[in-house]
């Protein structure tokens, strides 16, 4: 079997409810659909969500690196020789989302060829994940209303609150209002997207003590190595690395230097292959993992649940899988359903993302 071509198709779908957080905001899903074609007529597909404010990749840069740099070196290779494709991609540093998307498309291709679901090829642990919903910047009462609505409509009982605002009292108040309004049984954790200093994060932890928060994600820039290490040592809850750990090498550096003691795995920027390496590192060291969301479409969310449900360690905690609900539309032919707070994997060959051709024609921006 040979790879005959790679397409990177830019498209744009607006958000009905844009998400705001400390490092940016997403108003439109300016994503790239990657399709890897083969001489056997089987195609693998995956979605790339550029996040310029986080990783420096844009829709244009992802399209270019995939079509102009990776594709010419990868065409002609057997798609099952994944390590050879990775050797090509490793020569280029960074560009994690572009690389991750090519990797997921290769796994999708493998699943479709072998006629097996990819969650089984990866590990086959279970068939669904609990869903954690992300709450963006809003006044405290609106956050509570949103959480209550998601609890009622979808059965979701885990929420990640976006924090990192100044004055700190904005987020501290939001934590208190949410805990008061949601009761003790709902899981609440925080993600500051580097919005604070490590010492500010410490202050927030002190002033939210007793609220039962479970995790603190990316409180400050990982470059604040000394203060961050002090925060990790003193924090009563795990400090999760997210944008500081897109690769296995980054994860090992942050864990071993004490910059974090839990890891957020995102398939959008690590693919399935590097996510597997990161997961192995975490289980070996005995640190917790979460399955994160890069404000993914339904295609990206299917990839996350495919990886998350495949392994025991990634399915212990709720996965961040619900951001697609804030989009006005999606390319997926058969929409994802959230029932009783869970999303199921698809029992079909590959990752299960069938694309609606009419929608792709409507939303693609290159024609
Ligand atoms: C998150 O967990 O940080 C925000 C920016 C990004 O790249 O991902 C999101 C969610
Ligand atoms: Mg995060």
From TrEMBL:
Residues 140-238 form the Mandelate racemase/muconate lactonizing enzyme C-terminal domain. Keywords: Isomerase, Metal-binding. InterPro entries: Enolase-like_C_sf, Enolase-like_N, Enolase_C-like, Mandelate_racemase_C, Mandelate_racemase_N_dom, Muconate_cycloisomerase_anti. Transmembrane segments: none annotated. SMART domains: MR_MLE. Belongs to the mandelate racemase/muconate lactonizing enzyme family. PANTHER family: O-SUCCINYLBENZOATE SYNTHASE, O-SUCCINYLBENZOATE SYNTHASE-RELATED. This is Muconate cycloisomerase.
């Amino acid at each position: 079997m040979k790879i005959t071509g790679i397409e990177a198709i830019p498209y744009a779908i607006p958000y009905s409810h844009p998400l705001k957080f400390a490092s940016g905001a997403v108003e439109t899903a300016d994503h790239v659909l990657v399709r890897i074609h083969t001489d056997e007529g089987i195609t693998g597909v995956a979605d790339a969500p550029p996040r310029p404010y986080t990783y420096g990749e844009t829709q244009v840069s992802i399209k270019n690196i995939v079509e102009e740099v990776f594709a010419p070196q990868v065409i002609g290779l057997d798609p099952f020789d994944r390590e050879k494709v990775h050797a090509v991609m490793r020569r280029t540093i960074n560009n994690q989302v572009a690389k991750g998307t090519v990797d997921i498309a290769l796994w999708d291709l493998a699943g479709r060829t072998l006629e097996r679901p990819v969650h089984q090829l990866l590990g086959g642990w279970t068939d669904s994940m609990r869903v954690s919903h992300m709450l963006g910047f809003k006044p405290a009462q609106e956050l509570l209303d949103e959480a209550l609505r998601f609890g009622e409509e979808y059965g979701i009982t885990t929420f990640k609150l976006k924090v990192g605002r100044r004055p700190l009292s904005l987020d501290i108040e939001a934590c208190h209002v949410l805990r008061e309004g949601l009761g003790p049984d709902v899981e609440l954790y925080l993600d500051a997207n580097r919005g604070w200093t490590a010492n500010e994060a410490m202050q927030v932890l002190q002033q939210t003590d007793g609220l039962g928060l479970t995790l603190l994600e990316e409180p400050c820039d990982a470059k604040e190595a000394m203060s961050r290490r002090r925060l990790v040592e003193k924090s009563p809850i795990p400090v999760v690395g997210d944008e500081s750990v897109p690769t296995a090498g980054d994860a090992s550096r942050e864990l071993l230097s004490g910059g974090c003691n839990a890891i957020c795995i995102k398939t959008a920027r690590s693919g399935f292959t590097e996510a597997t390496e990161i997961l192995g590192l975490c289980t070996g060291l005995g640190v917790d993992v979460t399955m994160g969301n890069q404000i993914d479409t339904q295609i990206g969310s299917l990839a996350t649940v495919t990886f998350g449900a495949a392994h025991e360690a990634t399915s212990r905690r709720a996965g961040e899988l619900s951001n697609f609900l804030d989009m006005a539309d999606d390319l997926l032919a058969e929409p994802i359903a959230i029932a009783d707070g869970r999303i199921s994997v698809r029992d079909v060959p590959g990752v299960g993302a069938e694309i609606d051709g009419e929608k792709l024609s409507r939303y693609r921006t290159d024609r």
